[in-house]
Design a protein that fits this description.
Layout (H helix, E strand, L loop, with lengths): L1 H11 L2 E8 L2 E6 L5 E2 L5 H13 L8 E3 L21 E3 H10 L3 H10 L2 H10 L6 E4 L6 E6 L1 H12 L6 H11 L15 H4 L2 E10 L2 E11 L5 E10 L12 H18 L1
Antiparallel strand pairs: 1-2, 1-10, 3-7, 4-5, 6-7, 8-9, 9-10
Helix pairs in contact: 1-9, 2-5, 3-4
């Protein structure tokens, strides 16, 4: 697995940072404490903060927020495709859109529920040192901020172990991340439908300073439904900056690694 990782990272180029564990034992570690922009992988942390508020009784999952024209943010997602707005949607709907199809407007709706500074306080209270959103002038708006591969790995490990949220919100979040309507270009590409349902994953991609980043993190379950493997794969300083599809070299590397990790899990 380590040799395969090194070969795929070298072929894709850029700088790679990773942590993979199998039943808690380190399978692979590579510069896992690098502080990086998490891009849409950071939506995992935003979801945890919002669900923490649900767990504390601040608002329930069926609390409703209004999707207005001024909150719409283009890019990935579904809300901006509607062309007309005014829906009143539940917190559960917002989180499902953010985690399943990486909806950018959903991030703003989360900010209307839990302000940026509160999100950062929740993450700090849960023991995350670097994982933070980046506040702006409007307290209910923020950039997605930075994290490390190790902290995202820790977030997923603690989530699936039931040590981050209550059982109901944990099951909700994992159910969305494992859904077959999610992102399949990377880790889950070369898998059957049944195998894809055994992977809870979140992808993140963007570019800056003429270099691309392609990240993916998640959990693999064995055939009995037990969490077996947690992976956190971050890559920056990549080329092909405007290619967000399955042909990006780093995403192709994710697909190769995903198939190998699934086979490893099954063995």
């Amino acid at each position: 697995m380590r040799a395969l990782y090194r070969a795929q990272a070298a072929a894709a180029g850029g700088r790679w940072h990773a942590l993979i564990t199998h039943h808690g034992a380190t399978l692979l570690e590579d510069d896992a404490d690098a502080v990086l922009h998490g891009y849409s992988v950071q939506k995992l942390a935003v979801a945890v903060a919002v669900l923490d508020a649900v767990d504390r009784g601040v608002f329930p999952l069926d609390h409703r927020v209004e999707v207005t024209a001024d909150v719409i943010l283009a890019g990935s997602g579904i809300y901006d495709l509607q062309t007309v707005w005014g829906d009143r949607v539940t917190v559960a709907n917002v989180l499902a859109a953010m985690l399943l199809v990486s909806d950018n407007t959903a991030v703003r709706l989360c900010g209307s529920l839990v302000p940026a500074l509160d999100i950062n306080e929740i993450l700090a209270a849960k023991g995350f040192t670097h994982t933070r959103v980046e506040p702006v002038g409007n307290p209910h708006r923020f950039f997605l901020g930075v994290t490390t591969p190790r902290e995202i790995h820790d977030l997923l490990s603690r989530l699936v172990a039931g040590r981050l949220l209550k059982p109901g919100t944990t099951a909700f979040m994992l159910g969305v991340l494992r859904a077959l309507s999610g992102y399949h270009d990377g880790i889950r590409r070369v898998m059957s439908s049944a195998e894809r349902e055994r992977v809870a994953a979140k992808y993140g991609a963007d570019w800056e300073d003429d270099f691309a980043s392609r990240h993916e993190a998640g959990i693999m379950f064995d055939r009995a439904g037990r969490p077996a493997l947690v992976f956190s794969l971050f890559a920056d300083r990549l080329g092909d900056v405007l290619n967000y599809g399955a042909t990006h070299p780093a995403v192709q590397a994710h697909a190769v690694l995903g198939r190998a990790l699934m086979d490893w899990t099954d063995r």
